[in-house]
Structure formats: structure tokens, C-alpha cells
Amino acid sequence: MENKWVVSKFGGSSVKDAVSMLRCSQIIENNSLTKIVVISATQNTTNQLEFVARAASVGDIDGNNDTLQKIIQEIIQKHISIAIELFTSPAVLNDLEALCGELKAIGETISINQDFTPKIMDELYSLGERMSSLLMADLLRLRIPNKTIHFLDARKIIKTNSDFQKAEPQIEVIAKNTALEILPHLNENSIYVTQGFIGSDLLGNTTTLGREGSDYSAALFGEAIGASLIEIWTDVPGVASCDPREIDKVNYIKELSYDEATALATLGAKILFPTTLLPAKRKKIPVFVGSSLNPRLGGTTITDKQHTGFSLKAVSQILKKDLIIISFIGTHLDELENLATSLQNDLGESHFEFYDQTEVSISFKVATFKMDKKESLLRAHEVLSKFFV
Ligand code: ADP
Ligand code: ASP
Ligand code: MG
User: Which ligand 2 atom sits nearest the alpha carbon of residue 128?
Assistant: First the structure.
């Protein structure tokens, strides 16, 4: 079943503070088709929660763990400050305080056990998304008063196996839950705000889909409601020819196929969680990637449309043990004998050696003693730029 509704996911950098959250609320307000809003933890919070677990597990049991107390206070303060700046309602402030209480309690449990299991880690991780989504739901109530904003606990819908920290979603159960809990209430006047990254197993234990997994959550929700579009709002205007943090002059790609985007994500580009495109591809739902900082810049649209001839779009890098693997993404790359020749001419034969090839990628391994990580990516991107379609 397909309908006109849109699922919109906002990453950690998009909700990092009150001003950023306001920007997201504007994007949501501007598109009346947006029905499910998937929120990540505020920037760096998930890392801080990992730090809580580590600090708690090495500290002393009697609560005199300064490092632990300091990091817990930082997390609490960050969220309370955003809540105050956003004029969060007293009821939601109470809910937020309850989550802060849970955070302290999990810290204590880990301190007592002097250890943490993947299971308790997922409970701890979940607090990041549960806090940020609570704030966003309340902000939307303030900003879009003519709509009913439902706060949805993703763990009621996103059922997974019990493989904590890398849980596998149970697609049929998710579809059933969505049909019962969400679909009957989806209409012009409703918006659901929920969490990325988290789910629960069939016993009700909290699970997570893997670090950076909120993109995947958005796609799972999109698949379950048969959305017409899944939007991934981040801090860059789309998928680029290379990581813009590594290279100054990148080319933002207008169109990518599901397979190309999956290859890119799997072969090292951090822009999307690798399995994100699978639910979208199953239901042929387009995925848009754009910048919440400046939506007017447009972004990348990912569909099943694929070039029938040669096209070269992006380069990515992955480190495997002591190997640097550089991959070029595009179609009919085997026709591109020039690429290998060009790489060898430019860089010297011994630098890049063929490693692997798929329908939408060709990978080379780099002789690390000749070039480091940054240099190899730079040089590969330079070579790539000659071949842009
Ligand atoms: P979010 O918090 O929104 O999930 P991420 O940090 O997970 O954001 O992903 C966005 C980041 O991905 C960008 O800031 C960029 O540095 C990085 N990135 C890596 N490779 C690419 C690429 N090929 N195109 C765009 N961004 C990329
Ligand atoms: N908050 C989680 C993480 O940082 C999930 C996500 O943001 O995608 O890994
Ligand atoms: Mg991400």
C-alpha cells in the first residue's frame, strides 16, 4: 500500500540545540504531508552515554565517581537548557526529569556491577533519543497548534530480535504494529514524533539497530506506512562525491540509485547507515537527503533509477585491518579501463591495486607505506573528478 505521507528523520547535528530544533520544526511545518518525524539523540549524546557506561564500570561502588557524576550532569544540563530555551511545557519537563532519573539509576546499576552488558547498554543508549524526541514533540505542539502531535515510543513499533546493539528488525511484526497503532490515526491533522535507533525485542527489552542507525529506523517506518518519501535531514546538502569533511571541493550528487547509495554507505561513506536503503528499495520509496541547516540547497534523491551506461559518482574509503580500501561508485565501471590506467599513470602502479568489484563499485587497495589515509582519498578524488558525468 502506498500513500502520500512523508517520513522525516533529523540527525543529531540537526537537533543539537534549541535553534537547530526550531529549524527542524520549520521544515516539518512547511510540509503538511510529513506524518512521522524520527529524531536522533542530540549531537554527541550517544557518545556521552557510552562514556557514562565506561566511567560507571570503572568507578567505585559508593557513588564517589566524579567522572561519572560530571558526565551525567552534562547530559542532563544540555537537555534541560534546550527545554528552557524552547519553553517546554511543565508536563514534558517532568517526563524529561524522569528520564534523567533513569539515567542516574542505570549509572548506579553499572557502578554496582562494575560492568555493563549489551542489554543494559541499549537501555542506556535509548535515553538519548527518548530525551530529544520528547523535546521535539513539545516544540511541535507549540509551533503547530492546529495539529495533534502524538509522542510515539518507537519500541512499541520497531520490534527486533534480541541481538542487543545490532538488533535485526522483524519486518512483519513492524508492519502489523504499524497497522494497529499508527495507520488508523494518520490523517491531515496528525503528526507522530518518535525515536530513531531504538526498538525492542519480543520480550519488551530495549534494543538498538547499531550506531548511526536512526536512518534505518526512518526507512523502516517509511516502509511500514507505505510512505511516498523518506527524508533524511542532516548537516550537508545531500550525498557528495566524497566526505566533505575530508575534501574541500566535493560535488553534491542529485540522483543516486538504491544500489549505489548502499554501496557507498557500505564502503565507508558515513552519510547513511548501510542498511537504510533496503526497506526503501523493497517498497520503491524515494529517499531524499538534504541539509536541515539550509533546505533550499536541495539534496540527493535516491530511487531505483540507475544509469544504463557508464557513470561515476563518488569515492569512499574504508579501513580494513591494516588496509586502506578506496572505492569508486557508479555504473558500468568495467567499461572504465581508463580509470585504472589513469590511477596508475597519476599515482604510480604500485600505489593502487585492484581489490574488488560489484555492479556499482570498483575497489582498490592502497599501499599504505606509499600513501596515508587522507592523501589516498584526496588523490583518488582528484582522479575521479575527471570522470564526472
Ligand atoms: P547525522 O547526525 O545527521 O546522522 P552524520 O554525521 O551521520 O549526520 O552524517 C553526515 C555526515 O556524513 C556529514 O557531515 C559528512 O561529513 C559525512 N559524509 C561522509 N561521506 C559523505 C558523502 N559522501 N557525502 C556527504 N556526507 C558525507
Ligand atoms: N544516536 C545514535 C548514534 O549516534 C543513532 C543515530 O544518531 O543515528 O549512533
Ligand atoms: Mg547519521
Answer: 1
